[in-house]
Write a structure and sequence with these properties.
single chain, Jelly Rolls, five-stranded antiparallel beta sheet, three-stranded antiparallel beta sheet, 1 helix, 10 strands, 3% helix
Length: 129
């Protein structure tokens, strides 16, 4: 088995941070925290915010082909439906671990919503349930 590449130091400052609009959901804004590069793709971490959401459409129930997905609410609230678990409104400082391939849907969120999402691996597929 080949040796894993050593992780590098990574620091991401909030001041002057850039958000992009080309993430998983076109209606959100994403701030890359540098974790993907520092871990050679083993992990990713980004801040996701509602920002100036336009054209919000529900994505429908879906799942992700990954090993780990954690969502921590930094600000506002977000509502998810999880197959077999129920519907939950997560508020500031709430956290959810979404097990691999759990079917879920984001159904609503506040205009000021900000999330921290950590995944492994960094790149994964999203499939319609």
């Amino acid at each position: 088995m080949p040796a894993k590449k050593k992780q590098s130091f990574s620091l991401s400052r909030a001041k002057g941070a850039k958000f992009r609009k080309d993430g998983l959901r076109a209606f959100f804004e994403y701030r890359d925290l540098g974790i993907k590069e520092a871990t050679h793709g083993r992990f990713n971490a980004e801040v996701i915010r509602a920002g100036t959401v336009k054209n919000y459409t529900r994505a429908g129930q879906h799942y992700h082909k990954l090993e780990f997905q954690l969502v921590y609410v930094l600000k506002g609230w977000v509502k998810f439906d999880y197959e077999g678990e129920g519907s939950f409104t997560l508020k500031t400082r709430d956290c959810v671990l979404q097990p691999p391939e759990i079917r879920h849907e984001l159904t609503a969120f506040s205009k000021d919503m900000e999330l921290l999402e950590v995944t492994s691996p960094a790149d994964f597929r999203t499939l319609t349930a």
